[in-house]
Design goal:
This protein is an alpha/beta fold. It is built from 17 helices and 16 strands. The protein is elongated, with a radius of gyration of 28 Å. The structure holds adenosine-5'-diphosphate and magnesium ion.
Length: 373
């Protein structure tokens, strides 16, 4: 439906605000963009209705490159809700809600019906509130009007930039609930910006986590909680949420780990062979002098080549080894270890430094311990 392909934004002052943003929003999906202040959420969103133009990359809606569309027409087909809703103070609520349909020259009966329908949808009786002015409504009521105004012209896409952030916690939760209910009926494609993880988890079909102008992880709320991509996502989700999630039904990956038998990448093969024999292992885990994981060298590869005095471990190791991140869920370890030709999988931290390995026998031992306990 909406597709970003390698979208970059460099502002006039040279600031590189978005770096190769690539993602899709499916039709009828509510996608939440979340990230700390300054991570590029608003910039990303405002590109969809061409309030900001990309420096590089393309954005398509239903396969059509939006840079080739008339921006004004485009904007009329996309609803937009922002924090300061900007209801026009001298227009009544009904006039505010019907603003875009009137600009689009809808017939009067059509937009009057539409306004009534929408006001009922958010629990504001048009007979009671329709002729009032915005200042005669509470903050929560005004924001409901902001939301339905964005829906009035029946856009396929709605953009919402922190629409509930200025509200008190109770109104805020009510509006979140209403949005979820509303979306069940209207099934619009919605891009919703927030910096509040509770809000994201509550309303999103999928969550796109941004940091410093990049997409860090894009997945369903459930998968993000179960498998945070890195330490940043983890801390953004918050430890208490991780604790409370299903992920605790699996052991922590670090509980499954055992220390690796490691060797430096520049070690000669004859020496390496001795090490393999003395430690009684099948393979060495190869690291550089900073303990950054480099690859795996098996006894067979070492044995085959050890007479060549020039060769070092880095010349013969397998450097395209599947690894685990230490925050990965344990279930992933079970899967990868099963698939591994080495019978074990190295575990690395966010700097690719080796933390340990998970082996078939360490998994079996863990299972046995669990059963015994
Ligand atoms: P968010 O909505 O995630 O808080 P924004 O998309 O508003 O972040 O901004 C992303 C970054 O781009 C910020 O560092 C912001 O200061 C910068 N930025 C936004 N607009 C401009 C601009 N017109 N010129 C220069 N920098 C900008
Ligand atoms: Mg913003």
């Amino acid at each position: 439906m909406i597709e970003f392909k390698e979208v970059n934004k460099v502002f006039q002052d040279g600031f590189h605000a978005l770096k190769d943003i690539t993602f899709k929003v499916e039709e009828g999906e509510l996608l939440v963009l979340i990230g700390p202040s300054g991570s590029g959420k608003t910039t990303t969103m405002r590109m969809i209705n061409r309030l900001i133009e990309p420096t590089k990359g393309t954005i398509t809606i239903e396969g059509k490159d939006i840079s080739k569309e008339d921006p004004v027409k485009l904007r009329r087909t996309i609803g937009y809700v922002i924090q300061q809703i900007g209801l026009l103070p001298h227009m009544t609520i009904k006039e505010n809600v019907s603003l875009v349909p009137r600009l689009m020259k809808w017939k009067k009966e059509r937009y009057i019906d539409k306004v009534d329908e929408l006001m009922h949808m958010v629990g504001l009786d048009p007979e009671v509130f329709g002729e009032r002015y915005p200042s005669e409504l509470s903050g929560g009521q005004q924001q409901r009007i902001g939301v339905i105004r964005a829906l009035a012209a029946e856009p396929k896409i709605i953009l919402m930039d922190e629409p509930f952030s200025a509200l008190d916690p109770i109104s805020r939760e009510q509006l979140q609930d209403e949005l979820v209910r509303l979306q069940r009926d209207i099934q619009k494609t919605i891009v919703f910006v927030t910096h509040d993880m509770d809000e994201a988890l509550k309303i999103a079909d999928r969550i796109c986590i941004m940091k410093d102008g990049e997409v860090v992880q894009l997945d369903t709320p459930e998968n993000i909680i179960r498998r945070p991509a890195n330490e940043f996502v983890r801390s953004f989700i918050g430890e208490d949420r991780l604790q409370g999630s299903d992920s605790i039904s699996f052991p922590k990956l670090t509980k499954l780990m055992v220390p690796a038998v490691t060797a430096g990448e520049n070690r000669r093969l004859a020496e390496s062979l001795k090490m393999i024999r003395s430690k009684r292992v099948n393979s060495l885990v190869v690291v550089d002098n900073q303990n950054v994981f480099q690859g795996i060298a098996t006894v067979w590869d070492v044995q085959k080549n050890y007479k060549d005095e020039e060769l070092m471990l880095k010349d013969i190791m397998d450097s395209s080894v599947v690894t685990l991140q230490q925050n990965d869920p344990a279930e992933k370890a079970f899967q990868l270890v099963n698939e591994s030709v080495y019978g074990f999988v190295p575990v690395i931290d966010e700097h690719r430094k080796l933390v340990g390995i998970v082996t078939r026998s360490s998994l079996v031992e863990y299972m046995v311990d669990e059963i015994v306990e």
